[in-house]
Automatic annotation (TrEMBL), chain A:
<feature type="domain" description="6-phosphofructo-2-kinase">
    <location>
        <begin position="50"/>
        <end position="271"/>
    </location>
</feature>
<keyword id="KW-0511">Multifunctional enzyme</keyword>
<dbReference type="GO" id="GO:0006003">
    <property type="term" value="P:fructose 2,6-bisphosphate metabolic process"/>
</dbReference>
<feature type="binding site">
    <location>
        <begin position="278"/>
        <end position="285"/>
    </location>
    <ligand>
        <name>substrate</name>
    </ligand>
</feature>
<dbReference type="GO" id="GO:0005829">
    <property type="term" value="C:cytosol"/>
</dbReference>
<dbReference type="InterPro" id="IPR029033">
    <property type="entry name" value="His_PPase_superfam"/>
</dbReference>
<feature type="binding site">
    <location>
        <position position="328"/>
    </location>
    <ligand>
        <name>substrate</name>
    </ligand>
</feature>
<keyword id="KW-0547">Nucleotide-binding</keyword>
<feature type="region of interest" description="Disordered">
    <location>
        <begin position="466"/>
        <end position="502"/>
    </location>
</feature>
TrEMBL record, chain B:
<keyword id="KW-0511">Multifunctional enzyme</keyword>
<dbReference type="GO" id="GO:0006003">
    <property type="term" value="P:fructose 2,6-bisphosphate metabolic process"/>
</dbReference>
<keyword id="KW-0547">Nucleotide-binding</keyword>
<dbReference type="InterPro" id="IPR027417">
    <property type="entry name" value="P-loop_NTPase"/>
</dbReference>
<dbReference type="GO" id="GO:0003873">
    <property type="term" value="F:6-phosphofructo-2-kinase activity"/>
</dbReference>
<keyword id="KW-0418">Kinase</keyword>
<dbReference type="InterPro" id="IPR001345">
    <property type="entry name" value="PG/BPGM_mutase_AS"/>
</dbReference>
<feature type="active site" description="Proton donor/acceptor">
    <location>
        <position position="325"/>
    </location>
</feature>
<dbReference type="GO" id="GO:0004331">
    <property type="term" value="F:fructose-2,6-bisphosphate 2-phosphatase activity"/>
</dbReference>
Length: 529, 428
């Protein structure tokens, strides 16, 4: 308001305009230092850290598995949980069988599961209730968003009890039923995961198999499959029939349930192998520069040739090859003389203003950024660039398609490979940016039982080491799940300590004294940090 | 043999192999191979079950994500052949003349399908007709097999009389068939038309059709039955169909208020709002208030200017990084003049093919569409939403809703300080 004389009229007009909403602070924003998120200045509770996209889940959800033993419930539970955690939705499995093994130290035989075994029925019910208590704790006090309740849940009575529990606590419920009558599939499952169960520790395979089949029988008489046409028409559920040949989906309530259904419809159990590797060593790698779009060095080209030989030796049926759209991965794929698909989503993490710099350059020109990255490498976003968290979001369609495919070789980049690897090996956000993915090394992943077997195969071509360990002094911030306001003040870095600088110079002196030696990775510890 | 050399395509900035100076054979594909062989989608269902609604919407979505798709509505062929529609009697099961004509139309449509998929580079054809008998579906399936197409059935089953009545009002009364009828006459005739199909209707069956690939949609999406999804595109189609709904709602699209860089004629960057931009934000708040929208969701990008705009609304909002403006790479924060001066070739290339043109170290509209696909999917799930975004982004979203092809997309008018209100109506 400029002149005092007109202020009275101005105020009157503005009072009229205000009406039903309150004019807040005039749109002042501050950018959070690590994630580079713009937040209002008025100290309102900021967006929860994970919300860089749609609110995936409002009320917590209990996923209830349903099905006879050996129908893949635990397989689905674990795989789904791994996927949800990877995309940033805190999820946990509660396997009632494990609670039972805790309560009943020694499993004697299938008699325990007979429907007329009252003592056992009591124990089993207690285990289910104990598991539900833990579900409640996880969802209400431990910031969990999804709990997967892994048990047979084959009777309406049991499911009714769970629905009541959920209702009392304000949880959504989503049922996943696995129905399979193919005896071959059931037998395979039993061999894959049951014979090695703690229950059958002291049995031979034949006895174990026989006992387990009798165990399944115990459930059969009382099994009431989900009935979405009538009795269960109000429930949200998916029925997976014959290992994914067919699906029945009823009343999907929200975004996360829709994503879960999509995921379940894309996974399969065909044996296959996924190969992950980086491009061959690049010209920029040699110079210690990050990012960019450089071509392969001589050793990188040698690697490509070695990769070709390796792939041939693997003798695979129908291998798909995927690359990014950066030159170095494509050059690597070219040596294979196989068709390949270029995915922009597989491009290396965008280092924004730090693109094509060495870590030294970054430390010099952007010292604060350099320090912040070490503090919280998963959430840290380069100015005008990306974070590992952003990478996960952009790689999700790659993961979905990898699930659909069979044998695939993915030729990508260090940060990208770490993200993909974290998905397959169920590594947390905290570990992901420090997974070891060296140049000229192929990781061979084979699904086995409930997880993934990983084999690391070095193709024995020299290359620079681009891995930076987690600095010991880097403070780990408070548990990301708990931190609500990402504009938390950070502790100031320690003052520079002379001796450290000297040792750095020493290191440099030693390297240059040895002619023709492989240029070592530039020391990455900031003096005093 | 020595590895082939790579050269970077000047327009799209993609690396391609070449032999002796010429682009090499197509062993390098971009993105997921969505379709190996063409796909024939076959709609199934009684009249007024939403088949055409689904056909058109699905076609629009597939074209937007870059899969050339076309729908073939047999009713349209019938209207072209039988100039004037008299009454439901045309559809009586014992009307031999009628049956002959209808079969003829189906075959003519299939012939055009074959031309589209085998000669015109179409990837997906949507065959929109009742296809309610197993016999008719077998004919179509065989046709697909003979031509090397994968066939995917989409059946819509609905018994709720209110839904059917609403459909008739929405799209049948306005049909060319009923141009000279009163609403009551038209409704009565159409109900009798539906009856003609009922006796011979053979729904997709769990046992008899167990080897077919299909999705059965029940009660407008309350539940779904999905059988034998064969490939990526079918999986995407199923996901899409499971996310769309028909609840009335409005989508509001607008850009951030005018920014400091807008004032300077500079593109990109992460500037704040200008004074006028802040005024717009306040006006937007007032506009939203006046619209009196139930449960409005507000989405912004992660750039300061859209967030500042949303802040004025005083309601919760969600920040999406994928709604960020197109990345102009090396041209960020330049004026168009500076670009022309410093990158004359790039400047020219962009005008040549604005949709596919990728800024050096930046993005293209084509890249934008790919990154915006989850936004579209979530918009389909949601009800009332206000999206505060940016010019190129808004053009992409608008092109999806208004079914604009790639050539027109980068030129759609999305001025500052203007809100576009989109309301679904009939088939669009």
């Amino acid at each position: 308001f400029s002149s005092p004389s007109s202020s009275r009229t101005r105020i009157k007009v503005d009072a009229e305009r205000k009406k039903t909403f309150v004019l807040k602070m005039p749109m002042e924003l501050t950018q959070s230092r690590i994630q580079k998120i713009w937040l209002p200045n008025d100290n309102r509770p900021a967006l929860p850290r994970r919300s860089c996209g749609p609110q995936l889940a409002n009320s917590p959800t209990v996923i209830v598995m349903v099905g006879l033993p050996a129908r893949g419930k635990t397989y689905i539970s674990k795989k789904l949980t791994r996927y949800l955690n990877w995309i940033g939705v805190p999820t946990k499995v509660f396997n009632v069988g494990e609670y039972r093994r805790e309560a009943v130290k020694h499993y004697s035989s299938y008699d325990f599961f007979r429907p007329d075994n009252e003592e056992a029925m009591k124990v089993r019910r207690q285990c289910a209730l104990a598991a539900l208590r833990d579900v409640k704790l996880y969802l209400t006090e431990e910031a969990g968003q999804i709990a997967v309740f892994d048990a047979t849940n084959t009777t309406r009575e049991r499911r009714g009890m769970i629905l009541n529990f959920a209702k009392e606590n304000g949880f959504k419920v989503f049922f996943i039923e696995s129905v399979c009558n193919d005896p071959t599939v059931v037998a395979t499952n039993v061999m894959e995961v049951k014979l090695s169960s703690p229950d059958y520790r002291d049995c031979n395979s034949t006895d174990a198999m026989e006992d387990f089949m009798k165990r399944i029988n115990c459930y059969q008489a009382s099994y009431q499959p989900l009935d979405p046409d009538d009795y269960d028409r109000e429930l949200s559920l998916i029925k997976v029939i014959d290992v994914g040949r067919r699906f029945l989906v009823n009343r999907v309530q929200d975004h996360i349930q829709s994503r879960i259904v999509y995921y379940l419809m894309n996974i399969h159990v065909q044996p296959r192998t996924i190969y992950l590797c980086r491009h061959g060593e690049s010209e920029f790698n040699l110079k210690g520069k990050i990012g960019g779009d450089s071509g392969l060095s001589n050793r990188g080209k040698k690697f490509a040739v070695a990769l070709n030989k390796f792939v041939e030796e693997q003798n695979l049926k129908d291998l798909k090859v995927w690359t990014s759209q950066l030159k170095r991965t494509i050059q690597t794929a070219e040596a294979l003389q196989l068709p390949y698909e270029q995915w922009k989503a597989l491009n290396e993490i965008d280092a924004g203003v730090c693109e094509e710099m060495t870590y030294e350059d970054i430390r010099e020109q952007h010292p604060e950024e350099f320090a912040l990255r070490d503090q919280d490498k998963y959430y840290y976003r380069y100015p005008s660039g990306e974070s590992y968290q952003d990478l996960v979001q952009r790689l999700e369609p790659v993961i979905m398609e990898l699930e659909r495919q069979e044998n695939v070789l993915v030729i990508c980049h260090q940060a990208v490979m770490r993200c993909l690897l974290a998905y397959f090996l169920d590594k947390s956000a905290d570990e992901m940016p420090y997974l070891k993915c060296p140049l000229h090394t192929v990781l061979k992943l084979t699904p086995v039982a409930y997880g993934c077997r990983v084999e690391s195969i070095s193709l024995n071509i020299e290359a620079v080491n681009t891995h930076r360990e987690r600095p010991e002094e880097a403070k780990k911030g408070p548990n990301p799940l708990m931190r609500r306001n990402s504009v938390t003040p950070l502790a100031s870095p320690e003052p520079t300590k002379k001796p450290r600088i000297n040792s750095f110079e020493e290191h440099v002196a030693v390297s240059s004294a040895l002619p023709g030696c492989v240029p070592q990775e530039v020391p990455t510890q900031m003096p005093g940090q | 043999p020595p590895a082939r050399e790579l050269t970077q395509n000047p327009l799209q900035k993609t690396w391609e192999p070449y032999d002796n100076g010429l682009p090499a054979g197509h062993s390098a594909q971009r993105g997921v191979c969505m379709t190996n062989c063409p796909t024939l989608i076959v709609m199934v269902g009684l009249p007024a079950r939403g088949k055409t609604y689904i056909s058109k919407k699905l076609t629009r979505y597939l074209n937007w994500i870059g899969v050339p798709t076309k729908e073939f509505n047999v009713g349209q062929y019938r209207r072209d052949l039988v100039k004037k529609y008299k009454s439901f009697e045309f559809f009586l099961p014992d009307n031999e003349e009628g049956l002959k004509i209808r079969k003829q139309c189906a075959l003519a449509a299939l012939n055009d399908v074959r031309q589209y998929l085998s000669e015109e580079n179409g990837h997906v054809a949507v065959f929109d007709a009742t296809n309610t008998t197993r016999e008719r579906r077998e004919t179509i399936y065989k046709f697909g097999e003979e031509n090397g197409y994968k066939t995917f059935f989409v059946e819509s089953v609905c018994v709720d009389p209110e839904v059917i009545a609403a459909n008739i009002v929405q799209v049948k009364l306005g049909s060319p068939d009923y141009v000279n009828c009163s609403n009551d006459e038209a409704t009565e005739d159409f109900m009798k038309r539906i009856e003609c199909y009922k006796n011979s209707y053979e729904t997709l069956d769990e046992t008899l059709d167990k080897d077919l690939s299909y999705i059965k949609i029940m009660d407008v999406g309350r539940s779904y039955l999905v059988n034998r999804v064969m490939d990526h595109i079918q999986s995407r189609i199923v996901y899409y169909l499971m996310n769309i709904h028909v609840t009335p709602r409005s989508i509001y699209l607008c850009r951030h208020g005018e920014s400091e860089l807008n004032l300077k004629g500079r593109i990109g960057g992460d500037p704040g709002l200008s004074v006028r931009g802040k005024e717009f934000a306040k006006s937007l708040a007032q506009f939203i208030n006046e619209q009196n929208i139930k449960d409005l969701k507000v989405w912004t990008s992660q750039m300061k200017r859209t967030i500042q705009t949303a802040e004025a609304l005083g309601v919760p909002y969600e920040q999406w990084k994928v709604l960020n403006e197109i990345d102009a790479g090396v041209c960020e924060e330049m004026t168009y003049e500076e670009i022309q001066e410093n990158y004359p070739l790039e400047f020219a290339l962009r005008d040549q093919d604005k949709y596919r043109y990728r800024y050096p170290k930046g993005e293209s509209y084509e890249d934008l569409v790919q990154r915006l696909e989850p936004v579209i999917m979530e918009l389909e799930r949601q009800e009332n939403v206000l999206v505060i975004c940016h010019q190129a982004v808004m053009r992409c979203l608008l092109a999806y809703f208004l079914d604009k092809p790639a050539e027109q997309l980068p030129y759609l008018k999305c001025p500052l300080h203007t809100v576009l209100k989109l309301t679904p109506v009939a088939y669009g």
